[in-house]
């Protein structure tokens, strides 16, 4: 049992929690970018522009059916062979953004389709252009409905950053592996710490989701 | 001068012939009521006038614009032709006052103080000035419809289309909405086209009644002539059904 507590040296914990910064950094940047790109792609799919929308929809379908780890391998190992060299942090951000944008686009498209047709007709008959209708009437109503599924998708995003341990990004899970590689007795304590930190991070996010849900209901 | 003119208009939904050889002329300032059994094409017809439904053949001139011409900017027509819907279609995310002020602000670029003054005047007119800051969800059906009418009027349109404005309302709400519409018909020189089942309203305010069935206009006569002596057997049958209802 003393071996269990021996794992909690300040060096080990400092190193482990240093990975938290990278996990949060990758997550935060990917969240912002994938909300932006996911919205654009979702709106394109919703607008049913001839050919373009179905082309984007097909691409989206392909991306959503790939494992994220494969995309991470692609941006880190394959892109350099095509002449695009991304540092490991940004290769992870690029992969996460690519994958999460596709997931969020589907949520955005669904949210837009859930807005009553009458809202469009009321606005268009009132003289508003399609853009004005989307911006002032439809998108605000759609995003209100989308907040809970978007946040649950963001929780998966935070968890999925651990996949970047597969390309040796020094995020939290990878650092955990480094720590318990010193001593196998550290496996359980390290995993306990990781469990607590991931839980707190994501439970915090889900509390925010609940708060929004209540406030907007 | 005619405000709305249909010339040999055809409209299909797939194989279904929704509007059949429609020819119709409505002059500026006229109040016309459009009646007929459900599925007769009344709503389809009224919705072609502001381009919510497209026509497949023929010519449809509204305020001088040809709706079947791809070069026509539909927003120019909608600026001058308002519509009131069966299900109100108020903006759920905006207050009553914002519902009325939004289009004049975005489309007409009306001065903000002037916009608010006009909106409040209209709310006064439909008897809902005290609801200016309410959200639509807090209103009854009849109140929503009166706000929707005020929203259309705020654009100062040349024509106003009513698509079964009282059909979704509880019976005790219908009177207030019809009163507002009756005042508009009496006091304004707007062209009004009303799809309705309210025969007493039609008798009281319409200059003309058009009867449709199966996507065709079967009768188009003055209000007195229509109610006293309908020529079409189907119109007679329809009238006896709704009047004994």
TrEMBL record, chain A:
PROSITE patterns: ABC_TM1
Keywords: Cell membrane, Membrane, Transmembrane, Transmembrane helix, Transport
Annotated localization: Cell membrane
Entry-linked InterPro entries: AA_ABC_transptr_permease_3TM, ArtM/GltK/GlnP/TcyL/YhdX-like, MetI-like, MetI-like_sf
Mode of membrane association: Multi-pass membrane protein
CDD domains: TM_PBP2 (cd06261)
Domain ABC transmembrane type-1, chain residue ranges per copy: 20-209
Transmembrane segments: 20-44, 65-82, 88-108, 186-205
UniProt KW Transcription keyword: no
Entry similarity comment: Belongs to the binding-protein-dependent transport system permease family.
Annotated PANTHER family: INNER MEMBRANE AMINO-ACID ABC TRANSPORTER PERMEASE PROTEIN YHDY, MEMBRANE COMPONENT OF AMINO ACID ABC TRANSPORTER
NCBIfam families in alphabetical order: HEQRo_perm_3TM
Name under which the protein is recorded: Permease component (HisM)
Annotated organism of origin: Fructobacillus tropaeoli
UniProtKB/TrEMBL annotation, chain B:
UniProt cross-references to CDD domains, sorted A to Z: ABC_HisP_GlnQ
GO MF annotations, alphabetized: ABC-type amino acid transporter activity; ATP binding; ATP hydrolysis activity
SMART domains referenced in this protein's UniProt entry, alphabetically: AAA (SM00382)
Domain ABC transporter: 4-239
Domain of life: Bacteria
InterPro entries found in the cross-reference section: AAA+_ATPase (IPR003593), ABC_ATPase_HisP-typ (IPR030679), ABC_transporter-like_ATP-bd (IPR003439), ABC_transporter-like_CS (IPR017871), MetN_ABC_transporter-like (IPR050086), P-loop_NTPase (IPR027417)
Name of the molecule in the record: ATPase component (GlnQ)
Source species of the chain: Fructobacillus tropaeoli
């Amino acid at each position: 049992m003393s071996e269990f507590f021996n794992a909690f040296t300040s060096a080990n914990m400092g190193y482990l929690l240093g990975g938290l910064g990278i996990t949060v950094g990758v997550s935060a940047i990917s969240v912002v970018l994938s909300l932006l790109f996911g919205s654009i792609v979702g709106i394109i799919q919703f607008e049913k522009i001839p050919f373009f929308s179905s082309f984007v929809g097909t691409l989206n379908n392909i991306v959503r059916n790939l494992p994220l780890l494969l995309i991470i391998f692609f941006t880190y190992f394959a892109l350099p062979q095509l002449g695009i060299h991304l540092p490991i942090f940004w290769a992870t951000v690029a992969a996460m953004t690519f994958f999460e944008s596709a997931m969020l686009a589907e949520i955005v498209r669904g949210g837009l389709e859930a807005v009553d047709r009458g809202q469009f007709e009321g606005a268009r008959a009132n003289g508003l252009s399609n853009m004005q209708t989307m911006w002032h009437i439809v998108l605000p109503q759609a995003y209100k409905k989308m907040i809970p599924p978007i946040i649950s998708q963001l929780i998966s995003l935070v968890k999925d950053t651990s996949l970047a341990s597969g390309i040796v990004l020094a995020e939290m899970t990878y650092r955990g592996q480094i720590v318990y590689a010193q001593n196998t007795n550290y496996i359980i304590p390290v995993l306990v710490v990781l469990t607590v930190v991931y839980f707190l991070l994501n439970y915090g996010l889900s509390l925010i989701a609940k708060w929004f849900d209540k406030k907007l209901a | 001068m005619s405000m709305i003119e249909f010339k040999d208009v055809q409209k299909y939904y797939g194989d279904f012939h929704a509007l059949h050889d429609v020819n119709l002329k409505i002059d500026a300032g006229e109040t016309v009521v459009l009646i007929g059994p459900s599925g007769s094409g009344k709503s389809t017809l009224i919705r072609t006038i502001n381009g919510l439904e497209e026509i497949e053949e023929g010519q449809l001139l509204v305020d001088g614009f040809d709706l079947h011409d791809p070069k026509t900017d539909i927003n120019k027509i909608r600026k001058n032709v308002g519509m009131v819907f069966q299900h109100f279609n108020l903006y759920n995310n905006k207050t009553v006052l914002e519902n009325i002020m939004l289009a004049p602000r975005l489309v007409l670029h009306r001065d903000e103080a002037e916009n608010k003054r006009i909106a409040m005047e209209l709310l006064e007119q439909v008897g809902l000035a005290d609801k200016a800051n309410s959200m639509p969800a807090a209103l009854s059906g009849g109140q929503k419809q009166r706000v929707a009418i005020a929203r259309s009027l705020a654009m100062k349109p040349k024509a106003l289309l009513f698509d079964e404005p009282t059909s979704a309302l509880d019976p005790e709400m219908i009177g207030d909405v019809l009163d507002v519409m009756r005042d508009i018909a009496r006091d304004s020189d707007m062209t009004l086209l009303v799809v309705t089942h309210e025969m007493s309203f039609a008798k009281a305010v319409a200059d003309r009644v058009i009867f449709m069935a199966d996507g065709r206009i079967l009768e188009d006569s003055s209000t007195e002539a229509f109610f006293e002596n309908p020529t079409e057997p189907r119109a007679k049958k329809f009238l006896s059904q709704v009047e004994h209802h």
